[in-house]
Specification:
Helix content is 47%, strand content 15%. By secondary structure, the chain is α/β, with parallel strands linked by helices. It starts with a strand and ends in an 8-residue tail after the last strand.
Length: 246
């Protein structure tokens, strides 16, 4: 049987790279879909996945028509997308009283509209072929809220509502739809925080440390396995117990 085709949006970021590696190690043929403007970032990603069945393709998930063209292209070239991991995301943090419409729209357009744009074009093919795995990367802040992140928290909470609704629509078509809610992990964004703020976060995590991107990737690989067909509409928190401390 030919390899299943997996697409990871936001695929060259810290979490995305580890997800791509985990899926390739599980025998998938992986496409990392991400913005292509930073050639140094793309080159680093290609070094990180060297030797694995992973390739990069440029895509703006906020562009509905571009997502359609991307999915249609994979349908023609590889028979369609079997596994879709929606990991593309941005932040534009500020309190609501200071937030402008541009900051709100930017986060919702990528973090939530991007999930719609990809799923809208990919899910029909999965249903027709009788197999599909969709995993949406949400966040602990979509469960608890976070100061200065009304836009981000709304998008991530909305992502799980989307997950549960779509899971019901395709449950009898061999397609599962789940979300994963990471806590704070050792990504470039978190490690760039001032040391005092980062230590304050770690003190709230019951296991006493930040998560590793590969720990998130392991959960994604589990949910996208061929024999994970009885798990759908679920949200899996991977946060070191952080949710318990709120």
């Amino acid at each position: 049987m030919s390899k299943r085709v997996a697409v990871v949006t936001g695929g060259i970021g810290g979490l995305g790279t580890e997800i791509c590696k985990a899926l390739a190690s599980a025998g998938r043929s992986v496409i990392a879909a991400d913005l292509g403007g930073n050639q140094a970032r793309v080159a680093q990603f290609e070094r990180d996945v060297d030797g694995l069945d992973v390739r990069f393709e440029a895509l703006d998930v906020a562009d509905f028509d571009a997502c359609k063209a991307f999915v249609d292209g994979l349908q023609d070239a590889a028979g369609g997308i079997d596994i879709l991991v929606n990991g593309a995301g941005i932040t534009r943090d500020t309190t609501l009283r200071k937030m402008d419409r541009v900051q709100w729209d930017a986060v919702l357009n990528v973090n939530l509209d991007g999930v719609f744009n990809m799923c809208r074009h990919a899910v029909d093919g999965m249903a027709e072929r009788g197999f599909g795995r969709v995993v949406n990367i949400s966040s602990v802040n979509g469960q608890t809220g976070q100061f200065g992140q009304t836009n981000y928290s709304a998008a991530k909470a909305g992502m799980h509502g989307f997950t549960m609704a779509l899971a019901r629509e395709v449950a009898r078509k061999g397609v599962t739809v789940n979300s994963v809610s990471p806590g704070y992990c050792e990504t470039a964004l978190v490690m760039a925080m001032p040391e005092g703020i980062r230590q304050g976060i770690i003190e709230k995590v019951p296991v006493g440390r930040l998560g590793r991107p590969d720990e998130i990737a392991r959960t994604v690989a589990f949910l996208t396995a061929d024999d994970a067909g009885f798990i759908t509409g679920a949200n899996i928190p991977v946060n070191g117990g952080l949710f318990m401390s709120f």
